[in-house]
Give the backbone structure.
Amino acid sequence: RLVREFVAQNNTSQIKHVIQILSQEFALSQHPHSRKGGLIGLAACSIALGKDSGLYLKELIEPVLTCFNDADSRLRYYACEALYNIVKVARGSVLPHFNVLFDGLSKLAADPDPNVKSGSELLDRLLKDIVTESNQFDLVGFIPLLRERIYSNNQYARQFIISWILVLESVPDINLLDYLPEILDGLFQILGDNSKEIRKMCEVALGEFLKEIKKNPSSVKFAEMANILVIHCQAADDLIQLTAMCWMREFIQLAGRVMLPYSSGILTAVLPCLSYDDRKKNIKEVANVCNQSLMKLVIPEDDEMDEAKQSITLPAEPASEEPVSKPEAASCGESLLAWAITSMVKLLSFLCSSERIQVTLNLDGIVQVLDCHLHDTSIGMMTRIAVLKWLYHLYIKTPRKMFRHTDSLFPILLRTLSDESDEVILKDLEVLAEIASSPAGQTEGHGSSEATDLRPSQVELHIPIRNSQLSSSGTKGLECSPSTPTMNSYFYKFMINLLKRFSSERKLLETRGAFIIRQLCLLLNAENIFHSMADILLREEDLKFASTMVHTLNTILLTSSELFQLRNQLKDLKTPESRNLFCCLYRSWCHNPVTTVSLCFLTQNYKHAYDLIQKFGDLEVTVDFLTEVDKLVQLIECPIFTYLRLQLLDVKNNPYLIKALYGLLMLLPQSSAFQLLSHRLQCVPNPELMQPADGTKASAGSKRSAASNIDYTELLQHFEKVQNKHLEARHQRAGRAEQLDRRVVL
């Protein structure tokens, strides 16, 4: 009644005096009953003031909010009731004081007393209604408080925060999306709350934000939220991780290349998810979409941006200051004008491309992440495959930039060939094949300085000698075939390191050697592979490994469908290239006598095959040797040697073929292979015609020898020389074994 009288008299000083007395002497009194009375009095003042209460809100609200911290729960309830009445009367006038009201309410939301909590909920609903109705809400001033309180660990406080975010998001005039980067991290933390209700509320809030992002992608600050998503994509909580991954998927698809600078972080989060089992199938599927979408953002222009920037430079000033004649000056002027026009065109094209591309690719960061994942032996198979797909994609799209990292990637790519999964090895071979064949890896001459400084004795990179580099003696047949496509320096480095790996890991050679080489023949040029490997093995110091490797290569050459074309090329030796290849292979094949004979059978050099078999009498015949002869007999019965078996019908022109086969028969003990070959030779018609009569027409083999210009005598001498080395090596190994036995006895 008193306040109403003062309002009627417009006596503001007396109104303030009454409010001050109620605040200082009652609401803030030490006596609890006085505080209760003060709170009731302040509420009564607000009711009496009516629409004028907005003029005194600061004086009315502050003492009430102080009582929110009172130890007495009944006092906190009275304070809540008083503030409800004050806000109900003032309505929109309380919005300038929203932050302090929100701060007080956030504390009451976690109050242990149910009555206080119930009262605070009524006040909270009233305040939400006021904010929803008003168009004067100060969102900018509120965001710092929201950002601070969103990290509360109290469940009720979190529920209070989420409810307010949902309300603000629903108000058309309030654009909370602009400030989403400020609160997104806190929202994801609340999403991990133990309460299902709070998690559901937070999920709804995040869903509403994502809908808004899809509607208005042009106004979204994708870059500011990218790292937040990267962090939560690695969360231990499945719901947080799945939600963050879904957001990441939408961000990559909506923002496009804006996300490229964050590629390394995104890959760090996404790649491990690709190996999840069915328990996390949803996360795995979304992560796979993220990975594929991000990969598509890398374009060939990313390989040219640095060059485009560097090309827009001023021409260097001439070093000479001598005067230029008029014609020269005119030509200089024309050239300068042409340069200026060209530069302007380049500048405009670069600016246009930079507008389109917008951002540059952080290739160093991406490669570092991929390299770390390849080194991590604990990662799953699908992750390793994804890493190798990324490397292959980068070598295709940005080869020049990627070759800066090849030296650091090469060792781990070679080690990955020992992976347990065939799929991983296939992808690894694709990457290595791209490295070995990409024009971007080609440098001056045959390769980089690294390639030219290597020595065969160090088992390092060796470049096959060209025709012009061959000396007249001792190097016949080592020419690198001019018909094969030119490979870059990494091709030879790859071949040498692959053979070194086979040498150090014999189990890899036994279990995966043929698989690896066959796949490489599909991915690269088969002739180049065999030519280079044969050349490297020719200088191999470990003779036992050289023999094993030659046997493996020969089996692949004779049996693999991938090498059909190469076999046809060697079968006739019609071209200089095929003859050069035969000579190169022959010299290395000499590490294994039986494979050398099989190569002669393949190339239809039957007379030379017969001459080789004649030399077998001087060799040490071991069980392994006889086993290889047995396998050769089995091969002769295979479809690959159909033409050889048909040539047995032409006894007159192929006497040395029959002699060579009889030579093999004489080498074999009485076994199944002996019976097989014996039965085959019994089918040869007119065996008495095996010996050619004097003056008869030269055999096909003789014709070939004359036409091919191959020095078979020199090749035969080379075979004897290599076999002598093997004999000495076996004796040395036997001597060392005998000495070891003596030491054991002693």
About this structure: Residues 414 and 498 are 7 Å apart (CA to CA). The radius of gyration is 43 Å. The chain has a mean pLDDT of 84. The longest helix spans residues 712-745.
